[in-house]
Specification:
Elements: E1 2-4, E2 11-13, H1 37-63, E3 67-69, E4 73-78, E5 81-88, H2 91-96, E6 102-108, E7 112-123, H3 131-135, E8 138-147, E9 155-156, E10 170-177, E11 182-191, E12 196-208, E13 210-214, H4 223-236, E14 242-246, E15 251-252, E16 256-258, E17 263-266, E18 269-270, E19 273-274, E20 276-277, E21 281-283, E22 290-294, E23 297-299, E24 304-308, E25 311-315, E26 318-320, E27 324-330, E28 333-337, E29 340-342, E30 346-352, E31 366-368, E32 372-378, E33 385-386, E34 391-393, E35 397-401, E36 407-408, E37 413-414
Parallel strand pairs: 3-12, 6-12, 13-14, 14-17, 15-20, 16-21, 17-22, 20-23, 21-24, 22-25, 23-26, 24-27, 25-28, 26-29, 27-30, 29-31, 30-32, 31-34, 32-35, 33-36, 34-37
Antiparallel strand pairs: 1-2, 4-5, 5-7, 7-10, 8-11, 9-10, 11-12, 18-19
Organism: Blautia ammoniilytica
Keywords: Membrane, Transmembrane, Transmembrane helix
Transmembrane segments: 42-61
Length: 415
Amino acid sequence: MSKKCIKCGQLIPDEASFCPHCTAVQTEKKEIKPPRRWKKKALIILTILILSAVVGTVFFMHHKPQKYEGGAQIVYQDKDKSYKVLLTFSQEDGVTGHAQGERTDTLSEGMDSALPCQLYVLDQKTGKLAWKEFTEKVKSCQVNTKPYENSQKMEFVEPTHNESFPDAAYVSDILFHADSGTNDIEWMLTMENGDTISLRTKLTLEKQKAVTYYFEDTPMETTDQLKALLASIEEEVPSDTTVYLHLPAVTYDGDIVFGDHVWGIYGSTEEDITTTFTGTVSMRGMNGNYADISGVHFAGNSGTGLNAYCLVLLSQCSFDGWDTAAFAQNGAWVNAMDCTFTNNITALKFNSSTSYGSAPNYLNNTFTDNGTAVCINNLPGTEVLDFAGSIFAGNDTDIDNKAEHPVDTAKAAFQ
């Protein structure tokens, strides 16, 4: 086998790579084209884009707003710090970091009441309160109530920091009545970085039994009749049963003691006569019992008008002529709204060992021509006594705060 030289045309062996006659190389030269530079650039750009996408995805996943959902407490991670966020109805539990996932209270039939639902924040590492730095990171805080089946929706006050609970980040008063049943109390916090925190606790109200006495049906026109009725109540009505008394427009002379029940005592007015007590009225509720007194006149010439050994809520009552008009002592508390205190040596006096547990309001009271309008000898707790709308006029001393208890008179009037 032979082939012709590609240059001189002489026959040469087929496998020859050059011509023995003219020494010409028998392989055709091919033009070697350099790689196009745009393909290399495109590859580099594509690689950069892929790397950017990976880095972006990692960054987004790391900084993506997080949802924290729990029961009454969660641990919230913010950058390099962790916070324990919890709900409770107890100030003591909140400070010590104990959440309250549910609470059951009893309330007398026909009664309304409220409980402060409190949100606390602690440094997860140290256990110390951290609400101040935490709330700077909060964009909004909301509360909602969700009733269970056959329950009624509880009302609530928008959450805010409350000076009566200085260690809590936020407080929302939950308002309810004896028929409210069970509600979930739901909290939602939205953080400045987009994170959300959802918490919830449960509040259940159990209705207490109650009995009601009307003066139209039950003899209570005189002091002796009223005392006989109170004696029969102590003997026949269990202490966990609420007693409602609707008193006639008469004057009761002498000292009267109301025993160990939850009391609803309602005065009445007929022409110019109002239900009136001229002796000391002692309220001796025990075991958490309390009294709600409305529309009663306490008229004296010495001594103590109302001697409270439990929580007593006064509304639309009047006191005049007493050494001490209303006295909260031992484990007691007296709360007054829309009441009038006139010509008493001391109108409202506290010498108690019990804190109120909520934000006590002393709204729209009138303190006129008393020696001392409000005397606070001893009163634990941090609840702020708010005298918004109250008037102080002609008193020798408006507020004698020996205990240095928190008092707010910014919206009171002094004349």
